[in-house]
Amino acid sequence: MAxxxxxxxGDPRLLQPAAPVQDPTSPEILSxxxxxxxxxxxxxxxxxxxxxxxxxxxxxxxxxxxxxRYPDAEEIxxxxxxxxxxxxxxxxxxxxxEGCLSVPGMRGLVxxxxxxxxxxxxxxxxxxxxxxxxxxxxxxxxxxxxLAGVLYPMRxxxxxxxxxxxxxxxxxxxxxx
Length: 177
Ligand code: NI
Fold this sequence. Notes:
globular, three-stranded antiparallel beta sheet, alpha+beta, single chain, 3 helices, Peptide Deformylase, 27% strand, five-stranded antiparallel beta sheet
């Protein structure tokens, strides 16, 4: 287990589509997930996608925390999700502030689907099929965007709503996620 380096916006590897995981239950994948978990916890992230540590696989982890930045958000179970497929449940979108470990120190206002069905494969090869909303749906959309080479600033509608966390939200906890 190890904390890996998180690559930052500007690195072309963050813009490449990730490949499906061929064997979700392999020891190599377990080892990768352990490193991703160490990395996410060390940096207080809400989630992490494999491409952020320069591994081009369709694998994200998220949840298992109660964020002081989102005290009212429901707790998201810790989840390892491979080869995800996302399907908005309705057209309703909502804007919310996001950060990213690959865009350190910044925040942007990003529109996301409020309700979302997501499916994929877990670490034991099990099928994951959940319909979620609000913060849980936002985190999944953010993390899975990384698998398509999309970073949240690319989704900001009005770049006046993009800036440094400590300027936008002075005095608040400003961990990246
Ligand atoms: Ni991110």
